Amino acid sequence: MEPKKVAAAAGKNGDLVDDDQEKWVCDSSVDHKGRVPFRSSTGVWKASLFIIAIEFGERLSYFGIATSLILYLTKVIHQDLKTAAKSVNCWSGVTTLMPLLGGFIADAYLGRFWTVLVSSIVYLLGLGLLTMSWFVPSLRACHADMCLEPRKVHEVVFFLAIYLISIGTGGHKPSLESFGADQFDDDHAEERKKKMSFFNWWNSGLCSGLLLGVTVVVYVQEHVSWGAADVIITIVMAVSLLIFIIGRPFYRYRVPKGSPLTPMLQVLVAAIAKRNLRHPSDPDQLFEYPKVVAKGRLLCHTKNLEFLDKAAILEDYETPVDQQSPWRIANVTKVEEMKLVLNVIPVWLASLPFGISVAQSTTFFIKQAATMNREIGNGFLIPPASVFGLTAVGMIISVTFYEKILVPVLRRATGNERGIQILQRIGIGMLFSIATMVFAALVEKKRLGVVEENPTKGSLSMSVFWLAPQSIISGVADGFALVGLQEYFYDQVPDSMRSLGIAFYLSVIGAANFLSSFLITVVDHVTDKSGRSWFGKDMNSSRLDKFYWLLAALVAANLFVYVVVARRYSYKNVQRSVAVADCYQGDRSRSHV
């Protein structure tokens, strides 16, 4: 055939490919009827807005409970400060570790949509039980308005309710966020850029719900009753769930393909079985499926953890690969997926001290606010938990600044699609968290000085807005580090593990809450032996300023470790093609991200 005719035919086929790519979404997702989705009528913002709506409602409900929990435990359950802080950290830890189970179930069996639906129903049951514990006479803390010791049945029902909410959150959080990100096609350039914005706007919706939760809901708790606030958050969650269900025709769905852990175990077994084989000098000698038969995206070979490459060495050239045991041969993509999971472990560990500093904003920061002058205007009292709203404000400001100003400038300067690497964004957040702890220590030292000068009035002469700098800086830290961690754990795990990836992010905060409780116990024990514990019966007899300095030093020391880990990190390397896999059977050009 003449060159001009070949070029014309290639151009015609390319046009057909482009047309198909624009018309259909061929990234292994399906629509609500199990068909290949239309690009124009499914996914992207038209679908993700429904998903952000339920996140808004859930976060409003969650933070309406979480930020006031330490106050409820001390005022109604009558726990002392140390016990209440441990109870909050324990509940927060369980709430943020449960997603590991929920994410696994979503990826392996139920799928993300159904996991969100079922877990949201469990969440509503918990909220309903929480409401009943206040209004049903036999379940109330006391028959009178004030009592020194609550009835045991109220404690049992209350803790059962909040741990039901933990279980609901365990399925809801990892599945919903990954389900939202699934609405954007990674192989479509325009949608891929929108996906990078998704995590920023997701957190803006989250913070908006948080802001209403710690202002409106907390105000009702403070000035009406805990029960009235419970009714509000139950109704909001129910309405949010209804909105989520209405959006069903617009969603793109991923079909679960069984346990994502099995292929990784197969890679490990195959690598061990072939440990005595020589590693090939050329990576092209390792086995990989052709793109035309591959299911899903293929990953490029990387040079780290080369021992695992032996799982992809083909020994039997006579038997078709499909007929060989998956415990003896794995393709390069499976090997690289195993490497991805191993690579996230150091990042996960290096993020824990940052998580410990985050844990303080829902415990000691709020107790600090409760001891200070919260009056503004004509006698209006700001609820202590509403101080947490400043953290949400800081986060919204930082996310908006990052998305609208910083990213466009950095894209032009670096040529990087993201502006800066994900791990660099997280590191910037860690720097701000150090500043948070430093400001918190200085303000607490000032507050204790005021108490010492006037023990009768205490720190009531000191405005609660002294806590504004540490709260806003904490929000800025979250805008960089927490959003970065969400994007990192979604993007840098295997495609089949993305709900689990979000669960890994949440488990950073969960494990950090348990570590925070452990650290409080250790510091209490050590300082008590030296004469005076840093954690007294109340805020005025404690030395939280010293604890904050300890946390600042801990996060600063860990930042050096994190920088080493980040510099050695190898990012996920996906084979890109002009046409989306499975949509076009012709030749493809290949480039690496």
TrEMBL record:
<feature type="transmembrane region" description="Helical">
    <location>
        <begin position="502"/>
        <end position="527"/>
    </location>
</feature>
<dbReference type="InterPro" id="IPR036259">
    <property type="entry name" value="MFS_trans_sf"/>
</dbReference>
<dbReference type="InterPro" id="IPR000109">
    <property type="entry name" value="POT_fam"/>
</dbReference>
<dbReference type="GO" id="GO:0042937">
    <property type="term" value="F:tripeptide transmembrane transporter activity"/>
</dbReference>
<feature type="transmembrane region" description="Helical">
    <location>
        <begin position="201"/>
        <end position="220"/>
    </location>
</feature>
<feature type="transmembrane region" description="Helical">
    <location>
        <begin position="90"/>
        <end position="110"/>
    </location>
</feature>
<keyword id="KW-0812">Transmembrane</keyword>
<dbReference type="GO" id="GO:0071916">
    <property type="term" value="F:dipeptide transmembrane transporter activity"/>
</dbReference>
<feature type="transmembrane region" description="Helical">
    <location>
        <begin position="226"/>
        <end position="247"/>
    </location>
</feature>
<dbReference type="InterPro" id="IPR044739">
    <property type="entry name" value="NRT1/PTR"/>
</dbReference>
<feature type="transmembrane region" description="Helical">
    <location>
        <begin position="340"/>
        <end position="360"/>
    </location>
</feature>
<feature type="transmembrane region" description="Helical">
    <location>
        <begin position="380"/>
        <end position="402"/>
    </location>
</feature>
<dbReference type="GO" id="GO:0016020">
    <property type="term" value="C:membrane"/>
</dbReference>
<dbReference type="Pfam" id="PF00854">
    <property type="entry name" value="PTR2"/>
</dbReference>
<comment type="similarity">
    <text>Belongs to the major facilitator superfamily. Proton-dependent oligopeptide transporter (POT/PTR) (TC 2.A.17) family.</text>
</comment>
<dbReference type="InterPro" id="IPR018456">
    <property type="entry name" value="PTR2_symporter_CS"/>
</dbReference>
<keyword id="KW-0472">Membrane</keyword>
<protein>
    <submittedName>
        <fullName>Uncharacterized protein</fullName>
    </submittedName>
</protein>
<keyword id="KW-0597">Phosphoprotein</keyword>
<feature type="transmembrane region" description="Helical">
    <location>
        <begin position="463"/>
        <end position="490"/>
    </location>
</feature>
<feature type="transmembrane region" description="Helical">
    <location>
        <begin position="422"/>
        <end position="443"/>
    </location>
</feature>
<keyword id="KW-1133">Transmembrane helix</keyword>
<feature type="transmembrane region" description="Helical">
    <location>
        <begin position="547"/>
        <end position="566"/>
    </location>
</feature>
<feature type="transmembrane region" description="Helical">
    <location>
        <begin position="116"/>
        <end position="136"/>
    </location>
</feature>
